[in-house]
Design a protein that fits this description.
Distance between the termini: 110 Å
Structural class: mainly beta
Bound molecules: calcium ion
Radius of gyration: 33 Å
Strand order of the largest sheet: 2-1-3-6-10-13-16-19-22-25-28-33
Helix content: under 10%
Number of domains: 4
Number of strands: 51
Number of helices: 5
């Protein structure tokens, strides 16, 4: 029994006729399967339509499969059925699929090749599915005429690199979807202006987006401006986004990068600044979210004066590079920021994967000014990229673990670092204590006893008074008087010089003052510390106990 009827064969003749009539009448005014139209004129292929087109013509391509390499050297607007439907957020209609074809002398098949020997060429390519090779390639290696390219709402699957080079005056790559790319998804080299926005790139065996100079003609052709915004990049073997070479003014903003650098290259990461000694203009890296990329951001090796590749870092002195308000969280397991070269990188107000400064210090490597940094990992907006919580970029804190390890209430004290001060630890203002507690820090007792900053902390944190008498305390009997306390409760710890806790009392300070007696007859004679911990801070005093 014949079971494999086609859809039409399964219909009665009468119904088939009606169906075809509806199908044709519903589409005849626009485009239908495997149709290429300019106005009411149809062409046998996209290339035939391009060849026949007057400058500025709109070429409408219907659903179907097109096995072509299309050469474009004039201003045309080439539109597939999904020219207005995002491949990332929309619901696409049946695709016009361009299967890239092999080109003589090139190994990789190509879909579109754009080139021109004249100025003022403006090409747009919208709404296709492109598979099997390079979706678009700069086909001009001799002429420097400026070509404008708009590549929008295309779905590239099982493809190869999108390459734009020097003849392109302006390239806009927006709202495309790149899935399963054989090497780097988007590579723009020496174009006048590069705009790469709102694309989704998933699974690339190279990088995600690379903006660089032309390597075809040497390193002297500059990408003048680059805007890389709101792209979502995941599962790429190498860098998520890279700015390289003689790239001039560049903005990398609101991108989300997850699982870039899956090769775990120690020099690469979610965002890479490569060979920055040749950077001109300004580089702004902001509001990006990078995760699972081994490193968050790296500044990578460059070339020496003889164009020999050197390992290690570059000198970025005088380069206007800012890296602010990004999230480089702890899933970037190697470093949040890595800058092995010289010259200080401005990288303030990033989330670095920790609030403990001792941990943060391990998350950053090299000449990086990373303080103040964000103490809140939350993304404050559903907009693409990372938007920090207001007020969460605050002065750096050092969290000093104290007490001995057997103390079940082992806590921390929060102190600021003041660069250049020989005794770097001073306590934060009382007004900031609650903010830090709200952020998850715990206020606790004591740096290690006997350190000079202990007294500084005591005197700077509070106007509240702790009086100990008598001192020395014969036989271990003494009183601790708390005066003018704003807190209603306090903990009083007696600590030995080695940090061992000897005694602890919890006291109510309901009227602002209290006297608490201690009787430590069994402790050896020596110097001890009295630490009073309240919501307003920590006060530490010495006491000498005598036989
Ligand atoms: Ca966001």
């Amino acid at each position: 029994m014949k079971k494999n009827y086609s859809f039409l064969n399964g219909m009665s003749y009468a119904f088939k006729f009606i169906f075809l009539l509806i199908f044709l009448s519903g589409t005849a005014l626009s485009v239908f399967a495997n149709s290429v139209m300019i106005g009411a004129t149809s062409y046998p292929s996209i290339q035939a339509a391009v060849n026949a087109a007057s400058p500025g013509a709109v070429i409408m391509v219907g659903p179907g499969t097109y096995n072509e390499t299309i050469y474009v050297s004039k201003s045309v607007n080439i539109q597939g059925p999904n020219a207005a439907i995002s491949p990332n957020t929309g619901s696409r209609t049946t695709e016009a699929i361009i299967v890239a074809q092999s080109v003589a002398s090139y190994l990789t098949p190509r879909a579109f090749v754009v080139y021109s020997n004249s100025t003022g060429v403006n090409v747009s390519i919208k709404g296709f599915k492109i598979t099997g090779g390079e979706p678009l390639m700069d086909g001009n290696y001799t002429n420097l005429s400026a070509i404008q390219i708009l590549f929008e709402k295309n779905f590239i699957e099982a493809g190869s690199i999108f390459y734009g080079g020097v003849p392109f005056g302006a390239v806009t790559i927006t709202d495309n979807r790149f899935i399963n790319i054989a090497n780097t998804a988007v590579f723009l080299a020496g174009v006048g202006s590069a705009t790469v926005t709102d694309n989704v790139i998933d699974q690339a065996r190279g990088g995600g987006i690379i903006i660089t100079a032309s390597f075809v003609r040497g390193e002297n052709t500059i990408t003048q401006t680059a805007n890389v915004l709101r792209n979502k990049i995941s599962h790429v073997s190498l860098e998520g986004i890279q700015l390289a070479h003689t790239c001039k003014d560049a903005m990398v903003k609101d991108n989300e990068i997850d699982f870039a650098n899956t090769s775990n290259d120690p020099n690469l990461g979610g965002i890479v600044l490569w060979d920055p000694t040749l950077f001109q203009g300004t580089k702004t890296i902001t509001n990006n979210k990078v995760s699972n990329s081994f490193n968050g951001l790296t500044i990578y090796r460059g070339f020496d004066g003889n164009r020999v590749l050197i390992e290690g870092g570059d000198n970025i002195t005088g380069k206007n590079i800012t890296v602010n308000n990004n999230s480089f969280d702890a899933t970037n397991i190697n470093k949040a920021i890595l800058h092995p070269g010289s010259g200080m990188l401005n990288a303030e107000c990033n989330w670095l994967g920790a609030i403990d400064p001792l941990v943060v210090a391990t998350r950053v490597s090299g000449n990086v000014d990373y303080t103040p940094y964000l103490i809140n990992a939350n993304d404050n907006s559903t907009a693409m990229g990372f938007q920090p919580v207001a007020g969460s970029c605050i002065d750096p804190a050092t969290v000093i673990f104290c007490g001995n390890n057997n103390d079940p209430e082992r806590k921390v004290i929060i102190c600021q670092i003041t660069p250049g001060v020989s005794n770097p630890e001073i306590c934060i203002p009382i007004a900031d204590v609650q903010k830090r507690l709200d952020a998850g820090d715990k206020l606790g007792h004591c740096p290690l006893p006997g350190t000079a900053d202990l007294q500084n902390i005591t005197t700077r944190i509070s106007t509240e008074e702790v009086k100990i008498s008598p001192n020395p305390a014969n036989g271990g009997v003494f009183k601790v008087e708390l005066k003018n306390f704003k807190s209603s409760t306090a903990d009083i710890y007696i600590m030995a010089a080695n940090g061992m806790m000897i005694s602890k009392k919890f006291v109510q300070v309901s009227t602002g003052s209290i006297v608490q007696s201690f009787n430590l007859r069994n402790v050896p004679a020596g110097v001890y510390y009295v630490k009073v911990v309240s919501a307003n801070g920590v006060r530490t005093s010495k006491i000498s106990i005598k036989p």
